[in-house]
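[Q] Does anyone have a clean structure-token version of this?
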Amino acid sequence: MAPPPILIGNSDFLIQREADYLYVDKSRFISEVLSRPSQVQLYPRPRRFGKTLSMSMLRYFLEIGEDRSRYYSDLAVWQDPLSRQHFQKHAVIFLSFRDVKPGSWKEAEKLLEEVVTEELRRHLDNLRLSSIAPRFLAPLEAVDRGDFSLRVLGSLTAALHAATGQRVVLLIDEYDAPLLHAWTAGYYDEVAAWFRTFLTAGLKDNQALFRGVLTGVLRVAKESMFSGLNNVKVYSLLASDQELFGFTEAEVNTLLHQYGREAQAEEIRRWYNGYRFGDSIVYNPWSMLHVLGEPQDPLKPYWLNSSENALVRELLLKNDGLHTEIATLLEGGTIERRIDANVALRDLRGGNVWSMLLFSGYQKATAQRQEGIHTLVTLAIPNQEVAGLWQETFAIWLEAGTENLEPLHRALLSGNADKVQELLQKLLLRHVSSHDVAETQNEAFYHAFVLGLLVTLERSHAVRSNREVGIGRADVQLIPKRPGLPGVVLEFKKKSDKKTLFYHAGAALRQISAKGYCAELEAAGATPIHRLGISFSGKEIVVRG
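[A] Here you go.
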């Protein structure tokens, strides 16, 4: 039996179900929303992890309308008696702000008002509001005529409550998208003030509200966004005890079997696995759907390419002193940082940078512990897909001064050890601080520094780091993507005694031969194969080949 077709990019639950497209059952989300005592719930997760589709599923389950039981009868939620009690019993206000990303505050304000007014008009058209008291209708009709009020959510929920006799559900998808864009575009304060009044009117002490559910990437700092709201319960990716977004290991194994991709399981895991939400290990669903739907294509960074990463790059490049941390992460290591669940966009420096990177999906939490009132989280790069952004960041950092890396690439691919030493020495002196190469650092920094220099070689060569080959792990391999091109193996040694650098570069060179690090290059048809031993001490370097 052929597996179901895959629809990529759709976020409407009914479309997904009507045509029998692949749907991984995430209906437990409905049960969680209804069973949790919190009236207002916020679920921050990285972009493209299925938040909008799940919000659409929740909307259609709760919203009054024609019978939709056929879309849910085979899902887990249908076995939950509590959830069934609320099936299609409520009016639902559904707002999505994911596309509100203009260049100015004036344009943003207009778009925000249009999103809200369009949803208000949907309810004016579909419900018999004429039967309720004029005092409920008057403020809604004013907004309909163009006289927008930031307190419209309070008015609309009160009117729907009066019309239906049931308390109202308010769903706000990607609430923070306008805020994140405004931070980079320079009008954050205006958007934050707009949302502060808008959300307070709908979510605080609202007797007409049954549930308010918000999704986004971040829990934006309380003092700027949720001031006045003390009833918002945040279910962050650190606190969640079961995963409602993303694909679990068991779900992915089922999908790989269903689509005949079991043979690639390990490679797919290396590319797209690695996220940890609470106690659950999850895969990136956006990339997984592309992998399953495009079986002829090589694995590539689908999620990373799905939208701009301007904010993340800006944060990394404008924050001095992160080079050592990036180096450690690129080496495959971990760092421990204090993580604040409330991200203050006004002060994305120091620890807040790592909070932003974790909640946005560019880091994963491998462990966490409490130290007084602070949460300390051990961070790592999630997978190969995300590692690409970090490597690019290193390269951009170096090229910020219009650095031309082509001479270094030519020297490497020709095996010219003297030239490689000369060029690397200049780059170290020009771009690396004494703090970065402090004596307490191991060879991880140098390893990652060189990796960052090689990113643009990916057009012709696969750049591989710490890969098992022969009887050990080669530090860096440049593996040609077609036979007949040269290949390179690099081995690093970091030593405190500058007088022994020549000897240790030779030891690195001998290690390449003794442990068979050229085996993968030979299998790829590399001709010739260059071996380079590199030793460092502070900003001094010796290369032997």
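[Q] Thanks! Anything notable?
[A] The longest strand covers residues 461-469.
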